[in-house]
Structures are given as structure tokens and as C-alpha cells.
Design brief:
The chain is of the alpha/beta class. Helices cover 32% and strands 23% of the residues.
Length: 484
Amino acid sequence: MKVHLSAICGTAMASLAGLLRELGHEVTGSDQNVYPPMSTQLEALGIPILSPYAEGNVPEDADVVVIGNALSRGNPEVEVVLDRRQRYTSLPALLAEELLRPRRSLVVAGTHGKTTTASLLAFLLDRAGLEPSFLIGGVPVDFERSYRVREGKHFVVEGDEYDCAFFDKRPKFVHYLPEVAVLGNIEFDHADIYPDLEAVKTAFVRLLNVVPRTGLLVAGADSPALAELLPKAHCRVETFGLADGADWRATELRPTAGGARFRLHGKGQDLGHFVVSLPGEHNVLNAVAAVAVAVAEGVEPDAARQALEAFGGVRRRLEVRGREGGVTVYDDFAHHPSAVAATLQALREQETVGQLVAVFEPRSYTSRMRLFQEAYAEALGTADRVVVAAAHLPEKVPEKDRISEPELVARMRERGVEADFVPTVDRIVGLLAGSLKAGDRVVILSNGGFGGICDRLLEALAAGRSSRMAPPDNSSGAGERPVI
């Protein structure tokens, strides 16, 4: 089958491209915005990316065109597909029919933690010899890619609540045939398609409605909005969390070097201490959810314990991108206020000597809305110093609803936080490279490419270090230094 993917550089779309290639299909793709890690993943697969969008990108002989949910009427590729009466579909629908239906589908959903929990679950099953397939909205370090097809019966899939396509406005996960669903938490997000929290909760009820009565729901007990929905489940429910009463409960949380240690109580049994190589309370909860599902699927708790400690993490989820001159640069996908707060708190718990610096790009629709501005001021205020970049494509949000970067900075300053609005990546890199000191940590917070800021900052820090270390060149006059 010849498949063309319009909007191929989305995390899920690029992963679908890889899965289709592994199944032996011919794949082509196009996109408007091309950046790592998905662009490099596609390049490694030998799948060319046509850009920008154009009618000629779509092969006339494609058997099916997968239209990404970022595209709508007026896009030239959408229009030519409709004009030709070509067969078209959405990512979730094609994934379900080609890959999920023959396998046992384990769907990981929720407002936060989906990518990490799905990666953890796939890793635990893999270490237990169950050879799971998976599609994840990020790149697990241990697998070095976001997808895989194997012989095992399990398929781990990240279940996004975002809509499927311009022609199918249901949440993606309704297609995913879940026999086991993980639902970690529910908050108001994706404000471009959901008007309020009640609408978000309705979307997740749709997930509960497609889990069969013989299935299993593993649900976060610490999420009030989710707790309200649990009576609507038609299947067995097991809860996880930190509070008393959860079926799977973490206690005695302690930070470790780069991670966390906790005691796990599973369905009335004390399973002893576990270590996850990711920092923060939120990652402990992600780990508990993954262990609960793995045990339900036949993994022994001791095997899960050993695997959990070996887990290498996920690209762009508190990923250490590099260290230069004693400064550590992290890259993190966090863009919802709660996720930003959790990320910064996790870093706060680590023993350090320098400042914690947060660089925030309002890029998602939610982060560009004034509605969340006060929540961001509070969340970012956990850092010692904050740099706010210009919002990405602010015109996509009505002016009356749009975040004000200067007002956000002013609110943080009122809280006693050193904060600045620095619009461009060039200026941010210049500011930080000239002021960071050994022991400082910088976390880049954005759900997009952000102009390659991590690499550019590390390069600038390295250049500055080289300049400081260079010996004086007195051949052309005392006190003069060579140009670096």
C-alpha cells in the first residue's frame, strides 16, 4: 500500500510513518514546520519530507492519504485530496485498523504524563521478554525511536484527547480499542478545542465508554476531576496515587541523584522499595501506573523493580541536553501550568549549588491564553530566574484572549522572582551565555522546536568558555587577545 501523510512531522504522525514502513508499506510525507526530533527520525528512515504544503506533494497514486489534525479546509493538500476523491483517513483510524485490532491494546491517557508513562510501560514489558509494539508521542531513550512493531501481543499507545482530524472531531483515543486504559489525571487543557473543564471530562468519558467490560482501567486517585468520572466506568477499576485508599500507592518518597525512591503498596501488599531514574513526584506517579499495568499483564513485581531502575528516560522530558562550563541545560516539553510546576519542583528537589533558570516559550494554544496567565506566574515562580520568550504565532489567539508576556513578567517580579521578557532566541542566548555561572541549571520549557535554543545555548556557553581559557596573544600589542 502507498500511504501519504500530510503533516508528517507531528510526533504521532512521524511514528505512524515508521510503523507503516516496518509493515512494508511505501510512505511519503509533507509538512510546513520541520524540526527535530521527528525530522531526524524520518530522515534516518529515508522518508523525504516535502515542504511547504502544496497540491503537488500528494501523489495521485497514493492508496490512502492520512490527514493530520493540524490541517483544515483551505490547506492545498486537503483541497486536492477532496477534489480528486482520493481515499483519506485520520491517524487514529488507520492505526486502529492496521495495528491495534490484531493486538492487545494498552492505552495511556490523561492530561499529563502520557508520554513518560507509556514509555515506562513499554520498557517494563520489553524487559520482561513480552516484546511489545508501541507508538508513543516522544522518543524513549532506551528504544531510540517513538514506535516499534514486534511479535508480542501487546501494543502500548499514547492516547491523546486532541481531535482526530477536521472531518472527525472526536478525541483520538476513541479509536484505540483499549483493553487496558491508564487515565492518570484530568485538567483543563487544549483550550482551542475544549471550552472548559466539563468538555474535557466529557471527552474522557468517551474513553471509559469504549473500554470493554472485561477490560481494566488504571486511574489516578489524586485527580479530583477524574475521581468524579470513575463511577461511569463499565470495567474493573484499579486506582493509583499517594493518598490513602489507592489500590497502588507510593509512600516514603525520597529524591535520589537524578531520580526518586519510594515504597510501593500494591493491592494490599507491601512490595518494597522501588527507584525510578526520573526526578519528581509526578514521575513517581507515572512509574506506579506503569508498574500496575505491567503486573496486571503478567510481569512479576521484582522484575518490574529491576527494570524501572534501568529506565533511561524520554527525549525532551527533563532531558539533559548538555553541560558546558558547569552549566547544565535541560530540555522539557512542559507547557501546561501544572506540568511546568511539576518540572520545576522536580529540579528543586535535587541538591545543587547554583540558580535554577527557566526559559519559557508560550507555544501551545493553552499557554498563549490570558486565562492561564496567573497560573503560569505561579508555576514559573518556583525558579530563581525566569526568561519569557515571545509567544509563538500569537495571532492564532484572539487579541482579547491572548497572554501578555510583559504582564506575566510583571506578576512574577511582584512575587520576588527575577524575570525578563526577551522576545527572540538570539537575545535569550546572548543574555544567558553572558550571565550563567558554574552550578546553574537552565530548563527550556516549550512544546516545539523553539529555534534550536538548547544547542545554540550550549554552543554559546562553549564559545564563551574557550574565549576565557585562551591565552593572551601579545604579538600585536600588550593586552590584546586573539579573535575567537
